[in-house]
Amino acid sequence: MAENRASGNEEAEETRGVYGEGVPCWVDAQLADVEAGKRFYGELFGWTFAPAYGSSVWARLTGEPVASLAPKIDGRMPTVWTVSFATPDARALGRRITEAGGQVVMAPFPVGDLGVAALAADPEGAVFGLWQAGSHHGFGRRHEPGTFVWAELYTRDTAGANAFYGGLFHDALFGEGAEPDFGRAHVTEVFPAEMPPHFLAHFRVTDLDDALGAVRRLGGRVQAPPFETSYGRVAVVTDNQGASFALLQR
């Protein structure tokens, strides 16, 4: 759970390579209004945007891909950020997920020449993505202000989560030299009973209080005010369409 200390050009060079299995390698938002999303995140994080696959758009920071925004294909779908984990073989990982008590929500499918994507859920129902890289390896920049820095799993069964993800992604979490960007938090009675287990994508910011002011100004809201964690100072927010994410200052 240590912070990866690579930065600047060194970090960009590192992240152009293929990520190891179990490493969070991409985040994408499913939104009702992609143009509104571009305005919100463009001002909040300094992202620029370019056409991607189909009707989705790349979010870029200093020219490197850091996320994607896509229109919801069905209005009944949730407005969410999804964290995807790297794998060299999405079908094989899907089988291991099923054998471990999870489920494949969306079977692996090609995304042009970019790679192969899938959606899965753990035994408690927390949804996450799988990404088998083709020409798109994942984050071009991470751990820097305005980019992905951490994925936190909120779960009611921490022992079960430890066994499930520890078995699937052992090397990424516990292997020699591993510096995972992935933790988990126990959902206690302070959370609403109806809140399902879920992943929360964290984006790094330089000044958390300034970033919260920007969220409010742009039409988002603060779900959980700043609190201290072992990996930094965090606040949970929603964008102007209801997608939840976290801001992390470290």
From TrEMBL:
This is Hydrolase. InterPro entries: Anthracycline_SecMetBiosynth (IPR052164), Glyas_Bleomycin-R_OHBP_Dase (IPR029068), Glyas_Fos-R_dOase_dom (IPR004360), VOC_core (IPR037523). CDD domains: SgaA_N_like. It comes from the Bacteria. It comes from Streptomyces filipinensis. The keyword Hydrolase applies. Pfam families: Glyoxalase. Keywords: Hydrolase. Residues 23-133 form the VOC domain. PROSITE patterns: VOC (PS51819). Gene3D superfamilies: 2,3-Dihydroxybiphenyl 1,2-Dioxygenase, domain 1 (3.10.180.10). One of its GO terms (molecular function) is hydrolase activity.
